Amino acid sequence: MGIFSNLIIQRDERDRDAEHKADLNMTNHLETSGADSLSAAQNIIHYILNRYNISAKAVYGCDTLEDMMDLILDPLGMMYDEADLKDPSWKKRNDLMLGFLCDGTAIALIPGIFGYKFISSKDGKKHLVTNKTPLKQKAYAIYRPLPSEKLSLWHLLIYMLHILSPRDYILVMTASIAVTLLGLVIPKMNALVLKEVVPKGSEGIPLLIELALLFSLSGCIRSAISAIKGILLGRTRERIAGQTQAAVMARLLLLSQSYFTKYSTGNLAKQISNTRRLCDQITGFVLDSLFTAIFSVAYIFQMQDFSAVLALPALTVLFIRCILSFIIALYEAGNDRNTLAAETESDSFLYTAIKGVQTVKGNGAERRLYANWVRRYSKVLKYDLDKPVILKLEDVITDLVSSVGTVILISMVIPFGIDVTDYLAFINAYGLIVTACSSLMESFEKIILMKPMAETLSDLMKEHIECVEGGTYLRNVRGELRIENLSFSYEGTGRSCLKDISFGVKKGEKVAIVGESGCGKSTLLKLILGALRPDGGGIYIDGNELSTINLRSYRKHVGSVFQFSSLMPGTIYSNIAFGPVPVSRDTAVEAAQKADILDYINTLQMGLDTEISESGSKGFSGGQRQRILLARAFASHPSILLLDEATSALDNVSQSKVLESVYKEKCTVVMVAHRLSTVKKCDRIIMLDDGTVIEHGTYDELIKKNGAFANLVRRQQMSAWSD
């Protein structure tokens, strides 16, 4: 209890200090800020950040609330989401929110013991939210982030403790105390029946009826309180698991793209799902079993009251049971580590296999897939069935210790002259504390088993997030690129992919990167996007070195279509609008027109609302999917457009129309092309060979030069003629 109580005390002290500082800052803002609504909303956002012990700089010149929130929260790696205050369930949340009164006043919505309170940006005073409070429908929940540095299980535990409100502790503790006190009634009732009713025979029936009614009433009340406690714990568990899982998901999304190449999709999904299991176990231990065990100390005093002689042997037996449970838990942890690893491998394979089932069936490889799955799943069964002997005999050992303890207690009754009535009452009290301790040890076993589960999250927690602390936040991007002495090699390959590359791209210039397969074209685009980090040299965006830029702010101004980009499950419209800026339906239609996909969309019964499956099938060809991706890139009106073989699946007519749209864009374009006929209208062509720039110039200049580019063009033309 010492560790958890200290953590809770330290957390409460930090929260009180943060709340006090936030209130002071709010007062200062009230004295200095004007009546501008965005300014008032910014004061509320800073108030919420101060409550999280997070500081942020003031921002200016924002046109919309969303722009301002992005500008403040993105550099901090924080997420926010809209909340509907017309839905009554919002009051059950535990999030700090930015909201508004119907008159437009910005307010901070703060969860408390008796529900939400709000602090107005006008007077800085706290008011209780009631049904009569004139709230606007839309609010913004601002989520507490996980720390950006390397994390451990303790960081996750502290984060979870921040989610718990004082109301949670008070309600659960009150319910636990009530259940414990009512539990004391059971042994007392039994003792009264044996001492007062049984000796009197039929004369004791009236008293027996009274005791039976009292016993039934206390039992019903105890059951009702236990049920309420269970509901409270369930809701608390769901809230903690939901917010923690959301924080882990947010952290995952903020990691560099290179992290996602290390794990399969199924493995990453397993890491996220394990977060919920961790939260459930920690919550059950801290709020349920731990509190129950602490308050069950009252049963020890009741045991001593019934028979001080039997108390010590009974507690000794109980202690031995706890030691055995601890030893068994250690064995269980080792076995579960292997089981969890096998489950992760099996589930990851299964997820990937189901996702690619069309390919499997197309190649007639069902039997081979089944054999591969059986081989992986058999490892899970092996660890489940082939457990250490002590785990197989766990129930037998526990029952044996309990039986020996019962024999010892019975054998002491006559020698020590213990009254039968006191003995039976003692056994009742002893049974209650055994139940509480058993629940505690079961939870303790789960806590020990958390280590293998936490190990599956260790890489995710130790990985640094992409956001640069204090990095330059780009509100606007002109589109000027400069590459200086850029070098890069993939880890473990032992060879350089790019070697000392240097070139510049002016604002609005259309540049093509060409070369043989494997020369580093796609890698160069990924480096420009910030998906990979160079080994040497630098990439400059409008004069800012890419490693010093907040990448999320930079990518909001970049449209990209890579070779293996895929569509998201949803509608055609949601896929086109799936970008960093809001996209209206009119803008989506315009983008679809540029990508030469609008005519096809208009032939569909649902138009833009046509659903696209996860695999992008349902009648969509590779070229159609590619054009939807191009429409997505056009829709965001980027300052820089990166295209990696973005028209490879299009026929010549569609390709010509799409490229015409690309050339008309005012943004800077860097495209990788395999078909050299597509780059004739580019302002400049850069040819790579074995990771170095060997030629650059316009199409006509390079043809006249009659060098490597001209040779590559001739080879492609000869190949096309032979076909």
Structural commentary:
- The chain has 723 residues and is of the alpha+beta class.
- Among the domains are: 11-142, Cathepsin B, Chain A, CATH 3.90.70; 153-462, ABC transporter transmembrane region fold (Up-down Bundle), CATH 1.20.1560.
- Helices cover 57% and strands 12% of the residues.
- Strands 1-6-2-3-4-5 form a 6-stranded antiparallel sheet, covered by helices on one side. A 6-stranded mixed sheet has the order 12-15-16-9-17-18, with helices on both faces.
- Helix 1 (2-32) packs antiparallel against helix 2 (37-51) and helix 9 (265-295) packs antiparallel against helix 16 (420-462).
Per-chain topology:
Blueprint lengths: L1 H31 L4 H15 L13 H9 L6 E5 L12 E4 L5 E7 L2 E6 L5 E3 L9 E5 L10 H11 L2 H18 L1 H13 L7 H50 L2 H4 L4 H31 L1 H10 L1 H48 L1 H6 L3 H20 L3 H4 L1 H18 L8 H43 L18 E8 L9 E8 L4 E6 L5 H9 L6 E6 L2 E2 L5 H5 L2 E4 L8 E2 H5 L8 H10 L3 H6 L7 E2 L9 H14 L4 E5 L7 H13 L3 E5 L11 E6 L2 E6 L1 H7 L2 H15 L1
Parallel strand pairs: 9-16, 9-17, 12-15, 15-16
Antiparallel strand pairs: 1-6, 2-3, 2-6, 3-4, 4-5, 7-8, 7-10, 10-11, 13-14, 17-18
CATH superfamily of one domain: ABC transporter type 1, transmembrane domain
Measured as a percent range, the helix fraction is: 55-70%
Summed over residues and divided by their number, the pLDDT gives a mean of 81
Strand order in the largest sheet: 1-6-2-3-4-5
User: So what's the overall shape?
Assistant: elongated
Query: Could you name the ranges where pLDDT drops below 50 across 5 or more consecutive residues?
Result: 1-5, 30-35
CATH class categorisation of one domain: Mainly Alpha
Radius of gyration: 34 Å
Derived structural class:
alpha+beta
Q: Distance N terminus to C terminus? A: 77 Å
Using the 3D structure, state the CATH architecture of one domain.
Up-down Bundle
Q: What proportion of the residues form beta strands (DSSP E)?
A: 5-15%
**What name is given to the CATH topology of one domain?**
ABC transporter transmembrane region fold
Query: Sheet bearing the most strands, described?
Result: 6 strands, antiparallel
How many β-strand stretches? 18
Count of alpha and pi helical runs: 25
